[in-house]
Amino acid sequence: MQMDNFRNERDQYFKEIDNLNHPNETLVKTHCSYCAMQCGMNLRVNTKTNKIVGVEPRYDWPVTLGKMCPKGVTAYQQVNNKDRLLKPLIRDDQSLKGTKNGFREASWDEAYDLIVKKFTELQENYGKDSLSVYSGVSMTNEKCYLTGKFARVGLQTRYIDYNGRFCMASAAGGLNRSLGIDRGSTIPWTDVQDTDCIFLAGSNTAECHPTMMFRVWAIQERGGYVIVADPRETPVARRADLHLDLRPGTDLALANGIVNLLIQNGHIDEEFIKNHTNGFEDTKELVKQFTPEYTSAITGVAPEKIIRAAEIYGKAPNAIVMFARGIEQQIKGVDNVSGYTNMALVTGKIGRAKSGVATITGQGNGQGGREHGQKADALPGYRKIANPDHVKYISKVWGIEPEEMPKEGVSAFEMFGLMEQKTIRALYLLCSNPAVSAPDQNYVREQMKNLDFMVCVDFYLSESAEFADVVLPTTTWAEDEGTTTNVEGRIIKINQAQMPVGESKPDWQIQVEITERMGRGKYFSHLKTPADIFNELRVASKGGTADYYGVTWEKIDKQDGVFWPCKDENDPGTPRLFLDKKFNHPDGRAKIFALPYRPSAEEPDEEYPLRLTTGRVVYHYLSGNQTRRIQFLRDMCPEPFVEVHPETAAKYNIDHEELVRLYTRRGETTYKVKITEAIRKDTVFVPYHWGHEKSINLLTIGALDPISRMPEFKACAAQIEKLKIKKVQ
Predict the structure, then answer these.
(1) Separation of alpha carbons 21 and 217, rounded Å
(2) I want to staple 110 with a disulfide (CB 3.0 to 4.6 A). Which of 106, 127, 175, 464 is the partner?
């Protein structure tokens, strides 16, 4: 009660101060639209125009305490941007598919009529599964949940998947396999600064999640250690106590080498292993070969660094292992996640405060978006389509018979293969931009171009929308409300700050209206608000692994978010997992996996001697569809570049900022060179936020992890070539 009174007094104080400074404005409490830090912010809304005009940080938000990054402070500029789509578009000139041209404005009725006509014709001629849905996780839980229901009940197709296959799928696979549950973090973020050692693997944290860095630096200020495993000397690697500069694609060997040293040097918790895990003896035997010298030969990391990393982590009273896309976007991404999780399991540094494992989620709702039915094999609450009991429960919630539930589909990238085979003939695309984000772009764009019919739902005309037959204008995050689930597994609330611009509509409303026109409205017409959808989601998740049943919007507001699982109204949620040392496997034990090392799908050779890896920069987000339209962010980083080590540049006679040709077996493009010692000599790096001819994914490989079906964005063989003409300044 005292804390509630304090908050009320504090909020009233800041409101009064703000009213003096901005008399014609009101503040709307919400969260950022970008990464899964979901930084707290107040959107400033002009009370006369009802338009968002600015942003202020929320110092009361416990995760980021007023911190915001360059993307966050400019995110509000998405909403009233000149590039917003204001009306539906219909393509008149099919010869211009794949370009911005050939569209005309249309009414919603005309657009809906065309969609329903085409979808119905295709299903009558080729079956229900001729349609597909490709979604994303930069949406609320309500929209993600409804999209799964829209595909399986509204369109009655098995083919739905989402862009988390390019982001979080390997983390999900590895955590499920090792711990029996996929919640991105076993601890709340407020534990981070109090640990004694943080091991960051494959995370450019300072650029991709900069608002958590004050917690990372606090570890060092307390005398703790920061270890970073990354092929690049990123900003966090430069300040780390130890930088393990491994070759792209060799993380599993490094993890095995460290686990071996933890065992050999007695830094394991034998009681924890005996009572709470399986698989230790097999793992102990397998990792014996990963001596520091053998591990160094594979990874390129000096043996003494590997020894030091194991010593620091092993001796630390508390430690947290965190990883991100660098280790996950590989054909062994799931193995990498399990391999690094082995470090926590053999030392018993999990299931308590200040220790555990976490994946640093990339997309805003990367956690919640994969829990409630957008994945090809999943149903709400993290249930499985392959489980008849799960199907029976969800069918009852949805009002269908279990035999009506479509079977499992395929992963996002594999959907393009089915388009090539003409198994899939139509695509309903929302909240994603695969014409930039998918690997092997020449192949992907060709399949999108050859679809019989394509619908894209977006608030900008993205590169993917250029392949569509119909484009439907949707809303930004600030024009609707709902929940998301942040990097910790904390369910939070997004609040509406402005009415939709033009004729744009929220994704959930569009889906309800399409299903009504397709004769499936009885399953959707009762969902008239995001709150209606959330309450159905709660019931659908009840008893599942990701149980949201006890979560309410009121509880979220009162508690500053609710950690799932939250099983009933009296349950405050679960900030820390496994405090009872019971893991989510049937026997209650975690699994320590023996994981043989295997090379990347494409290793360097004489023809392609370099390793290409990709990633983010601080000023842009995902495919850049949002951030490239904001002037400040575009000015800060207007175009992509290729990082090259000075000795490599000298070998190819390349100068700084010279234009070069970069190519692989799948494609080629040209970039300006950035010569830097922060990259390995055998590696080149390109950020992936640009489309068309600047897309690095013209070069990346479509090889997939056998479990997660994650493409190997982080490693392929490449070559670089000096051009005769330098770029005109």
Answers:
(1) 34
(2) 106
